[in-house]
Batch of 3 targets.
Target 1
Amino acid sequence: MKQIKRQILLLIFIFILSLSVILIFSACAKDDNSNKDIKNDDNSVTDNENPKDEAAEDKEETTDIKNPIPEDVKFGGEEIRILHCTYFENEIDFMHVDGEIGEIVNDTIYKRNLKVQNDLSVSFNFIDIVLQNGGDFQRMVKNSIKSGSDDYDMLIGVQYDCVQLATSNVYANLINAPYIDLDKPWWPAKNIQEELVIGKDVLYFLGGDISLNFIRNMGCAFFNKQVYLENFGNPDEMYKLVLDGKWTIDKLDEMCKSMYKDLNGDGKPDNDDQYGCGVITNNLTDHFTYAAGVRATERDENGVPYFIMNSEKTVSFTEKLHSLFYNNEGVRVFVSAEETNNILIPDKFRNNELLFDFGWFYISEILRDMKTDYGIIPFPKYDESQISYLSLAHDIVPLYCVPQTCEKTEAVCAILESMAFESYKTVVPAYYEIALKLKYTRDTDDDAFKIIDMIHDNCTTDFAYVYNYTLNNVGLIMRELMAAKNADFASRYEKIETKAQANLEKLIDTYLNNGG
């Protein structure tokens, strides 16, 4: 009996030893595969480490970073009145929540706001306004400043709306504001902030990861893995196409051409059929344009913008986009409406009737109940020589400002820095790492995570896009061309150029001599 027991113990020991060896070799094999040379987003070959390991290291580093506001900075229970304007009603919940509900993003935002208030001894009083429901950010701010009534201490406005007050002398200049340090990692959109102003001595607007609505409104595309599998093969090839730098307008055009199917059998293309993608000539056109590296402006040595849009590249891009929209049976141009972006196109994508859904990160929330798996990729590049993929921050992203009449500027600046820090440390990881990367996309592929990071990190905008409504619509000229089914960029630009240039010069003069 003892001999049998010894044999059994020996067999158990051999089994455990064998299992350990297998696990060690498996781990080594996994490390070898994850360290293979891959193409970076600038098409250069790099020795890449496991993205999940990098994410874990980043998370550990983030946890160790301390709040930059000294612990003894307190403001004696000051009430901070925050005018909070959003484009969609549901976007209020990504800044101002009333309590914990057991949902990670909501609860993390609540805890962030509570922590900032407790740490700095302040209280928040949110005045929430929804533009679509009749809120008028410009009117409210101008009336308040003009009357000197000091109604608000902090302003959160929609980009296209609040920048129009830049030359009205209503915002405090934050260029040398206390506590705010734009070199910190929780202000990742510094290049975007520079596009929001003229010159190097003025800073009216802050934006970036301080608000989830900034991330939610970054442009991206979704691809349906089931539809891809049925038409092209392994869906992971789409990730490789992106990482190899070959995801371009021409490639999108090629893939869509084979996708049309007359699902309802009526013998004509309509909204009920299958397509490679559905588009509108309104806001989606902005993202195709600026993601392709088309620039409307550049800056001189003093940070003053000038037009560069009338170029061979823009002419060529216009022809490519027009051909995609109107000469490709696999592309359906739907009526331009919010319902198209947020209901019609996502529904067709969810029902496996589209290969691609072009939109924004927030579309992933609409697709939460989708049964078919999907992946997230950037908008396509102009061509393979474009250095990196770009993601346009849509013109409804939130910007943070301080009114001229504010008597609590020091407290507000401390709040902005502390809130940005806490968002970087807790809120963004909750949404970005857990909700966006895992719960919404349901994708565990390392390449998928890498591409989402790429979209976020390559966020961009253009001065003419930001100030379009002051510049004779030059920043949105591609919308007009596509809506008119017109590929003649040069002729259209010639008609608006003189007035756009005059408006730009007036804006520069007003900004530097009065607004600054």
Note: The first strand starts at residue 37 and ends at 39.
Target 2
Amino acid sequence: MGLTLTEQIIRDHLMSGEMVAGAEIGLRIDQTLTQDSTGTMAYLQLEAMGIDRVKTERSVAYIDHNMLQAGFENADDHKYIQTVTHKHGIYFSRPGNGVCHQVHLERFGIPGKTLIGSDSHTPTAGALAMLAMGAGGLDVAVAMGGGAYCVPMPEVVNIRLTGALSPYVSAKDVILEVLRRLGVKGGVGRVMEYTGDGVGNLSVSERATIANMGAELGATTSMFPSDENTRTFLEAQGRGEDYQALAPEPGAVYAKTVEIDLRSLVPLAAAPHSPDNVAPVSESAGLQIDQVAIGSCTNGSYLDLLRAARILKGKVVAPNVSLVLSPGSKQVLTMLAQNGALADLVAAGARILEAGCGPCIGMGQAPGTDAVSLRTFNRNFQGRSGTASAKVYLVSPETAAASAIAGVLTDPRVLGESLDLTEPEVFAVSDNMVIPPSDRPETVTVVRGPNIKPFPLGEPLEEEISKQVLIKVEDNITTDHIMPSNAALLPYRSNVPYLAEYCLVPCDPDFPRRAKEIGGGVIVAGENYGQGSSREHAALAPLYLGVRMVVAKSFARIHRANLMNAGILPLTFADPADYDKLAVSDTITLENAPAQIKSGGNVVLDSPHGQIKTKLDVSQRDIEMLLAGGKINRIKTNLEGTKHG
């Protein structure tokens, strides 16, 4: 019985634990990445731990999220990140160099290595056979300091691809098909490993699109083999020496197999307001549209934008449509400019944005009231675009470009002749926008602007917690609900007290005021609470407001870890029907809290409706962290014990 590719990389990086599905394992991390939306907090935490120099093989800080500089806040954060990384041994990718996932794929990803990043779409690097996972900033900081990254051992699901894609059907349609079948919870606790002869018909850029949106399944990560297509990509990037062949062993055993014949796929669209609300484009063809946005870390590659350019060449965007493009990297933008495709896009009426996340995270280009926006991005949660009433559809670059010309949602197969484009033999390589760390760190002064505030720390677990239910929310509450992300709030990612004023406001505008007046409390939630982004602000803002526990039917993996890192108890209903018993203002009491947490299993809560049984599936490390009031407190306690031991 052989090992899957995922299991081979885990085996080679295992620092603690056993490779048994669901059991906690600790992994040695080779590379890390951060972006500026989460990076300030990660580096503040790195400093708080007293780490002088990172221990990883390669750590990179990217500036790609908070690009609009309407005030001093974003520029100050960028200066802080540039100076703190220069001092601590981290490479710095300057504003304009591109989106972290696209640039890391181009310049730093290495088959067989481990990578964690403070962004939920870090699994994009799975296209290069990296074990790449999204994580909270504190977990990334610990890994940079040489600590293990602890995660439940995932099941490995085989997504077996056969055949080849038809003309105008793309990699975006592959992952939309997976989402259609498995849903936004279908990947929780799992790695999606792609195999089959169809994989050989997908370029690394196409694999990256699929791996990127595996995050929308809730998957730990997605994995592709390292094969001749990988070698071709790395050699074209001038990094052929990084190549090694990697594949599942003969007889590898998977928890589940999903068969997809690429020849059977058609252009698909995810309708509002969930990435798994998927149907063929043909079923909604003719829908009037107002905006088209092409790019982002999902579909911002050279191949993606070149396809859009070929479709738009000689045409003009429909009068009712605003078309914007955000290239994934400086490399992509440079190559489009060199071969004339950029001129074709501009001539067609496209508005060219800088290489960054842009409208994908609500950073500009918000649609109009009630507008329909087609986007090649990865998420279409309500309000994420910056306009609460907008209706966002997720589509491929081919569908987006064809629709921009027609002014209505259009199946691109009506265009007829195939585009027949392939990856270039040589990419335009330039790392002149990447600043290496200083070789004289003692001379570097870290610059902190006035908007950078200390992050909140949890309190050691008290004997009894007795708090009111502050809010009760439904299934699939996202981190965008918990801690909204838009152009107005993103500049305050290093200012948790300010952000806390907006915590859960999309669900209840009165939540922050009530939490402060009552002195904190409990959040009650449905299934998959905290899906979406890795942003730990969705745990830090509730912590600042005094939230002591979240009782949910189930949690998204990264958010659950972030809650524990902050010292907030993530409890799961033993009987999901108990969710219906609880109401806002009910008082929930956890007696003998340390003893119950130490039991590492069942936790009983008292409520006005009788006892509520909950589960707390935790490791001994998690127990110590929760008793201490969070990961930073636990690290400090351990360091103090070492000093006095």
Note: The chain has a mean pLDDT of 94.
Target 3
Amino acid sequence: MKTIKNIILSLAVVLGFTACVNDLNVTPIDPNVVQDFDENALFCKLYNAFAQTGNKGGGGDADITTDDEGYCGFFRTLCVLNEFPTDAYWWIWNNDGGVMATLTLSWDAANPFVSKLYNRLNYGITMANLYLDNTKDATDKEHLARRAEARFIRAYNYYYMLDFFGKAPFTTTVDMQTPDQIVGKDLYDWLIKEINEFMPEMYETTGGLVGIYRATQPAAQMLLARLYLNAEIYTGTADWANAAKYAGMVKDNHHFDLAPNFSHIFMGDNDHNDAKCEMIFLAQQDGQHNRSDAGSQYAIAACRTEGMNDHGVSAAWGCNRCRPELVMKFFPGKTRSEVIALGNGHDEFTMPAVAGDDRAMFCQKADAGFEAEFCGCYHGNGQLLKSNWALCKWTNLYSDGTSPTWTSYTDTDVPLIRMSEAYLTYAEALYRQDPTSQEALEALNAVRRRAHASEFTALTDEIICDEWLREFYLEGRRRIDLIRWHEFAGPQAWPYNWEGRGGAQVCSFVGEVCDPANENNSSDKDATDQLVAPIAVDAHFNLYPIPSSECAANPNMKQNPGY
């Protein structure tokens, strides 16, 4: 992280938005350069740090010290560490430093992606502390709301510290003291108390003085719901009742609703199309004024190649592909061979009808550079052969069929909290208390009805865990759900396996031999369609390590077990 010294009144104006303060369209700042305190600029930067990686837009003057600014943004680091190690997708640029370790659950304390996220979260906490230090004498309603929002942003970053690392360097002010460590239940308890303290001072919902990009009470309620949903992981004691309570508050809030069209949530005009009702907390992206390679640009460009359908942005990196397990979640009861045949020649516009689910936005067209096969087998030299299903959930096109004026960067805002999370949290929390709950069934089926997917008549553990993936793949959360269902790491997770998990050789079909020299390992020849024996991944991988550089710089931070 950049060294921050003497910054109680340290701000620099370097980049602007284009409208009113109410929508956060003021000039964000770099809190590392000594200038006079500019409250509006810093308030904007609190939110802008969820969307950009630095102060120039698209790259330059990075917020944190990094070898690759494009990799260090908030949303992208969530995707790398929450989805690369899971059954969601595979990053085929596996020579990027640290990538292979994240794909195969074999990272260590020197992994660069771990430090990128750790530093990004600490940066957000530091900025929030800076704002709070300099506005503590405010008494009017607007400033009290702004301070509550700053506390929300600080809590949101601390929540991810708890989830990824199980501990954090803890401070609620900006000073030169070395922060003490706060661990597990203590951080959880502080977050619950903190959110309940500031939430009443937030605006109840967007509208009036509050633009759509400012956090309101429903965002805080959903942060509480997230904490309570994972309470057993964080503290050892479950709290399903409170998870259901706070998720239910949001679910029943008439200011929000499930968007009628799932695809519109991830389009370039999602700040004003009919998906706006779903958005509880957004990171703004604007192709002209608020640009980044780490927000929706990442989610779109990484999944596209030349020859695929127009996606509204010129970038097409072609480095992200489905793992077979993701696609199979949309075809329950089908073998891999059957799914290969069903998907052959289809793209993101026709695949949903094949799968019977609007969320199955995949491309498997040969003329787009994809063969009609799944990835073949992972082996120890770091290759994953023929990963040929593309994820096309995100696009920069507009819902009215038009294209954006600016195509170098995306307009598609990133929903950090959206309404369907309230529904699925409510469903799971009720189910955990009563597996026969009809309310739980109805809440989950409401999400499926929106996607025009067939409804379930009863719920199971597997159904709920899989539904989280179907609804939220490529949104940076899959690891959290797998850990909660004891399917990520540790001996309980062994019965569920996916390609590349644990770094061992895994083949798509029983009986195949992984031959690194043979690109034809993958085929639809064997209908048994089972992965080889599950791979043991030690339970310590359920938490990431404290970066080795942080342990060296801060003796108060103790390393997590196993690293």
Note: The mean pLDDT is 85.
